[in-house]
Amino acid sequence: MTLLIKDEYPEKLFREDGKRLDGRDLFELRPIKMEVGVIDNADGSAYIEWGNNKIYAAVYGPREVHPHHLAKPDRGILRVFYRMSTFSVFERKRPAPGRREKEISMIIGECLEPVLFLELYPGTSFEVFIQVIDADGGTRCASTTVASLALADAGIPMRSLVTAVAVGKIDGKLIVDLSGIEDKAGEADLPCAMTWFNNEFSLLQFDGDMTLEEYNECLDLATEALKKIYDLQKDALKRKYIDIQERISQQNEKNNQERGEE
Ligand code: ADP
Predict the structure, then answer these.
(1) CATH number at residue 142
(2) Which of 16, 15, 13 is nearest to 186 (CA)?
(3) Does residue 261 lie within any of the structural domains?
(4) Does any domain span residue 5?
(5) Which of 57, 134, 151, 233 has the most crowded Cβ, counting Cβ within 10 A?
(6) Residue 63 belongs to what domain range?
(7) What backbone torsions phi and psi does residue 151 show, to the nearest 5 degrees?
(8) CA-based diameter of the chain, in Å?
(9) Residue 192 in contact with residue 138, Cβ under 8 Å?
(10) C-alpha to C-alpha distance for 156 and 61, rounded to whole angstroms
(11) Residue 1 CA to ligand 1 centre (angstroms)
(12) How many domains does the chain contain in total?
């Protein structure tokens, strides 16, 4: 998406030492932190900080479909609402959901659907609300990644998690995980998502210019990066249960001590 006027783009997207403008190597991911169970009122939730992106996802379901006419008698439906907060970008973004948000909601839904057993939940809906608090490139990928964690946190049966990352090309070189400026001023941007139960891409978008060899190399680079992000997702899920286990054993110890004192 082109938002800056072309003249405002930096002339070069690499520093003199060969690093990217934010100091990363070509195939280096931005720092990623994830946490599950962050919204008490939701059935499942998760939060991600991916570079400068900050995004929440909250999941509800299976529950009654509103409006009723959307309900399907033979299966459940998945509804995704991706929203970018009006304060999440440098320029003021209109508060009403625009065409871009509707498109991104649709593609996130399409890449999450293959992992759900919607056929087991006729007449119901699963709703995923995604709120981008701070945006700096790659929000559709970070949103997909955090939404799949929130679905898992809700205890919804899934074939696997889904992980997403963007790869692309800037100043003639292939790179992994484009930042906002690299996304806007670079030559190509290829957001992809992987469903791990069948190792297939459930999202492949493409914007820009590259050769077929570069495209194939991009898919290999994406696969390597996706594996790293997948490990972080699994760690975030496990951490919640390790924390619960620790709290229970501390409580048990306290109870035993109190009983011993009586
Ligand atoms: P993605 O965030 O998935 O890369 P885009 O390529 O559409 O999606 O957008 C790239 C980046 O441009 C976003 O991450 C955000 O930083 C910025 N951006 C997107 N929409 C707007 C907007 N309406 N106003 C200002 N900045 C925006």
Answers:
(1) 3.30.230.70
(2) 13
(3) no
(4) no
(5) 57
(6) 22-253
(7) -65, -45
(8) 77
(9) no
(10) 8
(11) 6
(12) 1
pLDDT 10s digits, 79-103:
999 999 999 988 878 888 899 999 9
10 belongs to a structural domain: no
Q: 181-220 pLDDT, tens per residue?
A: 999 999 999 999 999 999 999 999 999 999 999 999 999 9
Residue nearest to atom 6 of ligand 1 (CA): 1
CA of 72 to the centre of ligand 1 (A): 33
According to DSSP, the residues that pair with 116 across neighbouring strands are 158
Q: Return all residues near 220 (Cβ < 8 A) that are at least 6 apart.
A: none
Centroid of ligand 1 to alpha carbon of 180 (angstroms): 7
Report the pLDDT value the prediction gives residue 58, as an integer from 0 to 100.
Answer: 98
Residue 106 has a CB neighbour count (10 Å cut-off) of 11
Residue 144 located in a structural domain: yes
129-144 per-residue burial string, b: 16 or more CB within 10 A, e: under 16: bbbbebbbbbbbbbbb
The 10 Å Cβ neighbour count of residue 222 is 26
CB-based contact 164:177 (threshold 8 Å):
no
Could you tell me the CA-to-CA distances from 39 to 7, 33, 55, 57, 86 in Å, in that order? 42, 17, 12, 9, 21
pLDDT of residue 3 exceeding 80, the answer is no
CA 256 / ligand 1 centre spacing (Å):
54
Q: State whether the beta carbon of 1 lies less than 6 angstroms from ligand 1.
A: yes
